[in-house]
Write a structure and sequence with these properties.
single chain, 232 residues, alpha/beta, Rossmann fold, Arc Repressor Mutant, subunit A, 2 domains, five-stranded parallel sheet, four-stranded antiparallel sheet, globular, transcription regulation, Sig_transdc_resp-reg_receiver, Stage 0 sporulation protein A homolog
Length: 232
Amino acid sequence: MEKKHTVLVVDDETKILEVVKSFLEADGYRAYVAQNGDRALKLFENVKPDLVILDIMLPDIDGKELCKMIRKKSKVPIIMLTARVGEEDTVQCLDLGADDYVTKPFSPRALMGRVRAVLRRYADSAQVVADIISFRQGELEINCVSREVLVRGAPVNLTAVEFRLLQTLAKNMKKVFTREELIQAVYGWNYEGNDRSIDTHIKNLRHKIEADPKNPLYILTVHGIGYKFGGD
């Protein structure tokens, strides 16, 4: 029997919680809801969700701060809900470690599509042939089964999207990827967000794996085209 995924939904609006919980359960997920950050943290520790849907605006702990707190202890996929639609706000969500974002008001069915896509990407990132890929005399190691990344022997906490992005680039060292190609590899064809979100993930990834993010050795920019992997 296929394992049911557990989803934690955090929003201070009762109606949104009721609707999203109803749609999640109709799709076969176990759904838990919280209307504030304190309750969300307790549920997170108790139910260990496979995915978190998190509103930015919460009455106690700010949703952005809560995202950072979760990301420090877990690689669980996070979808942020935001009423803001500016590019700066969406980039900020991704900077915080979120894997995807949805702007309010949203279609519950569209949100369910995002949930399925994020969980699928998270699961697919482990489905590769090689177990461990090592670069530059072991300074960077990617374990494609356990989804662990080591930099000079120290573990690095990557989000699901960051890991998928690094894995895609590292397994295709000679290929230069456009942003559109990376979106297809990381998000799938159904992604509706701004293709510049890839730039934000690249920036975050560089800060985590590069000794000097401004002069990267691994994630290289090919001006006018996109990105490629520069490890050896």
